[in-house]
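INFO  loader      accepted 1 record
INFO  loader      residues=178
INFO  predictor   begin
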Amino acid sequence: MFGLSFSELFIIGIVALIVLGPERLPKVARTAGHLMGRVQRYVSDVKSDIQREMNIQELSQIKEDVKGAANQIRQNFDKAVADIKDPLLNLKNEIGDTSQQLKQAITQDLPDLSQLRPTKEGESPESPLLEDTSTKQQVSESLKPTDTNKAEDLLDQQALALKQEAISERHTTKEGNV
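INFO  predictor   done
INFO  writer      dumping tokens
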């Protein structure tokens, strides 16, 4: 421990025997042994505390590194989600714009049938929209009291067909541009 060899310890022991005497030497040796044990325990405790502090510092450094990596991963993930969301939002807006345009086109192309009323059988409806007698006859036949829903269904089907046609045309033009 202190760099003393066996011969040096032997000489120290003989001097202690002469100075202290044979009666007090065992008691002093026992006390010196206890003191040396305490010193060794104290030194080992200090070493373990220092080692523990170094481990805590290493762990806190590792913890900070892991937090930094986790934040980086989260940022990359959020960026990837945003990169996916932006085109989808643009596509949604384009579809909404297209549907608005289709609604406008459909409402402009179809005559206003709100003024037509179902008539009794044999009567023809009076409307400024119906100038042609064949059209009057077709409308009066289609607007019988029991068949009013059929006219609405027919208009809905025509509107749906126009929408689908416009969407397919837009889709084919996009494919042609890509």
